[in-house]
TrEMBL record:
Gene3D superfamilies: Domain of unknown function DUF1214, C-terminal domain, Domain of unknown function DUF1254. Transmembrane segments: none annotated. It comes from the Bacteria. NCBIfam families: TAT_signal_seq. Residues 1-29 form the signal peptide. It comes from Faecalibacterium longum. Residues 76-199 form the DUF1254 domain. This is DUF1254 domain-containing protein. The keyword Cytoplasm does not apply. Residues 341-445 form the DUF1214 domain.
Length: 460
């Protein structure tokens, strides 16, 4: 029978402990099993700190695992132009957006800056620039020519090129182009064809042929599953290596001084023996309860919007809010800052009962979300696994382009059900089991949003 302390940071329930064959050691006995003081708390702090960096790297490995660019992947420093919206087969990132066509690129700035050309468009279109720690370094919204450079780069740029500094060598760019139905795809393709991504030296010379990448079969994995399956040594050695070229922020110094006891930091080599007796078990228990623990601790950042809850600032620019940063990386990698988008979520109906495909619901709008500029809104359904729900008509969301039929008073009701109604115009398919909804609002009008009445989810 396995043993652990009652003062475990896992707060393991008696039922779970019994099911796993775990009984509890007295606190004093358990602490004597650790090679360093406070090993439990340090292990958790280190994991929460490094998780965004490691999952970003795993996502990069998967997304660049190809010899040539296609509509799913592209080699480093090349565009991956999606040619359709995400569907139920998409498994790269949880809770994918199905309103916009993505053009993504993973950049390596170790040798030189990359030139990114943003064309003029007639619709919502922006480019989110994320650093290796999942912070949004910039959002490119105006058409123009941008140089994405590593902070501290001292070179000279051509006239008219705007410099965007990023503090890490690894950069993830996500361009979102809003789509109005399948018939609008040629217009989106035309925008993608005007986008350019070129190393600075090749941009200056005027000649560039993207190099061939490589494909490794074992790198065909689901990034989040890959990271969660890592041993402590695999995880922290990966993080330590990544921190060399993607350095921690200056404000991380105090935490890194504490984590040095675990040999966690740039260029360090993690010593698994420091976790002491039962270290592997504690690691597995930590991962088992990770998502629920993060969600609980992140409630301080939650904002209420009717029956919906969204996460507010400092989302997308996290600073030292490490737990919050990891929670967002786990459930929605690549989240925007609140001036660009918010993502209200509900898992319950208007009576507070958990949503289930065993029932039929009515999503009732008295009015639609207020936005500015070329902003838009949508409601997307996801299963308990945080991925899109397979359905016979291939509909994963409703939005301001869905052509929904209004009621006589101008309000709109959307039917949420696992089985199709007779009229599917206002139908959003849901899972047979549990499900939840995300209400995305891009370019929210904050002057009026706080007084807006959010939609309700009512049992029919």
């Amino acid at each position: 029978m396995k043993m652990m302390t009652r003062r475990s940071f896992l707060s393991l329930s008696a039922a779970t402990a019994a099911a796993l064959g775990i009984s509890f050691l007295p606190v004093e006995t358990a602490e004597a099993c650790f090679a360093i003081p406070d090993a439990q708390n340090l292990l958790e702090e280190a994991y929460l700190y490094a998780f965004p960096l490691v999952i970003m790297n795993a996502t990069k490995i998967y997304s660049t695992n190809t010899e040539t660019a296609n509509n799913i992947r592209a080699p480093i420093n090349q565009f991956n132009h999606a040619r359709k919206l995400a569907d139920a087969s998409f498994r790269t990132v949880v809770t994918p957006n199905v309103d916009t066509i993505y053009t993504q690129a993973w950049l390596d700035l170790s040798e030189e800056p990359m030139i990114y050309v943003v064309p003029a468009t007639d619709r919502f279109f922006n480019v989110q620039v994320l650093d290796a720690w999942t912070n949004t370094a910039a959002v490119l919204e105006e058409p123009g020519i941008y140089a994405i450079v590593r902070s501290g780069w001292q070179g000279t740029l051509p006239e008219g090129v705007r410099k965007i500094e990023v503090p890490t060598t690894t950069v993830w760019t996500i361009a979102r182009i809003v789509l109005s139905g399948t018939e609008d795809l040629p217009n989106v393709y035309a925008i993608q064809e005007q986008m350019q991504l070129t190393p600075l030296s090749m941009y200056i010379s005027g000649s560039y042929v993207p190099p061939k990448g490589s494909y490794v079969p074992e790198n065909d994995f689901i990034p989040v599953n890959k990271v969660l399956a890592m041993t402590p040594k695999e995880f922290f050695d990966t993080a330590n290596d990544l921190m060399v070229l993607n350095p921690p922020a200056p404000e991380d110094a105090a935490l890194l001084r504490r984590l040095a006891a675990l040999h966690v930091g740039p260029g360090e080599t993690f010593d698994e023996s420091l976790l002491g007796l039962g270290g592997t078990l504690r690691w597995k228990m930590m991962l088992l309860q990770l998502k629920s623990k993060l969600t609980e601790q992140a409630t301080q950042y939650a904002r209420q919007m009717g029956q919906w809850i969204y996460y507010g600032d400092p989302i997308g620019d996290f600073g030292t809010e490490y737990t919050y940063r990891t929670m967002v990386a786990l459930i929605g990698l690549g989240a925007n800052t609140t001036d660009i988008a918010i993502y209200p979520k509900t898992e319950v109906d208007s009576s507070g009962n958990t949503l289930t495909g065993k029932r039929t619901y009515k999503l009732h709008f008295t009015s639609f979300p207020p936005t500015v500029d070329n902003g838009f809104w949508s409601v997307t359904a996801y299963g308990d696994d945080d991925f899109l729900i397979d359905n016979p008509i291939g509909r994963y969301c409703v939005n301001d382009r869905s052509g929904l039929t209004p009621n006589a008073d101008g309000s709109v009701d959307v039917i949420l059900s696992a089985d199709a109604p007779e009229d599917t115009t206002n139908w959003l398919p849901i899972a047979k089991g549990g499900f939840h909804l995300f209400l995305r609002i891009y370019k929210p009008d904050w002057n009026t949003l706080n007084n807006w009445q959010a939609p309700t989810v009512d049992v029919r």
